[in-house]
Write a structure and sequence with these properties.
By secondary structure, the chain is mostly helical. 67% of the residues lie in helices and 2% in strands. The chain has two domains: 11-127, no CATH class; 158-234, no CATH class. The chain is built from 13 helices and two strands; from the N terminus they run αββαααααααααααα. A two-stranded antiparallel ribbon has the order 1-2. A hairpin with a 2-residue loop joins β1 (41-42) and β2 (45-46). The longest helix is centred in the N-terminal third of the chain and has 28 residues, at 8-35. It is globular, with a radius of gyration of 23 Å.
């Protein structure tokens, strides 16, 4: 090696080693995908397809909601696995990071965050039928620093989740949790997963959060209160027709 420059042979070895490492990880990722249980199917399409349809337009996704409900509570373990991020998903995420460093191989796996984002809409579709998942969701919320998707999933299970949601709304020791919980509750009320009559229990909680020193918590509490007021006004207008 002259002048501190690497020899052609050492450059070749480095490049070959890098390519071999990428191919090995791709092979491992593909193996995990093959061994991973396939998506449940309803109406000829996989669960992931229906979840994406719901995510794009929750209020207008009647077909997707019906398809997931036809699968029943059997999909709950799959939804929970996607929220948790199992071993195969972590491998896929690592492979994607390596592949992002080069431009020769266009292959990418669906990212961990994509699966987590979609999974909560499975709970939206199942609604109260997903109540058995509440203990697991509460456990994951307590374990993760920013459990946004889990809070949405919890809120979508409906009225049985209200005590646990209030616990997270009032736990300002966890900086990001009350704000995320407020948005989750607001969304569940907006999409009728928490009944308006039961949503009234949140009003004093959100009113108290308006005094929070955390600007994000304060802003999200105001959004949630506005959702409740809007729903109440909408019901009054409908009753006069």
């Amino acid at each position: 090696m002259a002048g501190g420059r690497a020899s052609p042979q050492s450059l070749f070895i480095r490049r070959f080693s890098w390519i071999a490492a990428v191919l090995l990880l791709i092979a491992a990722g593909i193996s995990f995908c093959i061994l991973r249980p396939r998506d449940p199917v309803s109406a000829g399409k996989p669960l992931s397809f229906w979840l994406e349809q719901i995510a794009l337009n929750p209020r207008g996704a009647d077909e997707g909601v019906s398809a997931v409900r036809m699968m029943g509570t059997n999909v709950i373990p799959r939804l929970l696995a996607d929220l948790e991020g199992n071993l195969s998903m972590l491998w896929q995420n690592r492979v994607n990071r390596l592949l992002d460093k080069q431009g020769l191989i266009p292959l990418r796996f669906h990212g961990l965050e994509d699966r987590r984002r979609r999974a909560k809409w499975g709970f939206f579709a199942l609604g109260a039928d997903a109540t058995p998942a509440i203990p697991w969701l509460v456990q994951e919320i307590e374990a993760k620093p920013v459990p946004t998707e889990e809070l949405y999933a919890l809120a979508f299970t409906g009225n049985a989740a209200i005590p646990f949601l209030i616990t997270n709304l009032t736990n300002e020791a966890r900086v990001y949790v009350p704000a995320s919980a407020a948005l989750a509750v607001a969304t569940a009320i907006q999409f009728d997963r928490i009944a308006l009559s039961n949503a009234q229990v949140f009003v004093p909680v959100f009113t108290q959060l308006l005094q929070s020193t955390n600007p994000s918590t304060k802003a999200k509490a105001e959004i949630a209160l506005n959702h409740i007021r809007s729903k109440a006004s909408e019901r009054v207008l409908n009753s006069k027709r």
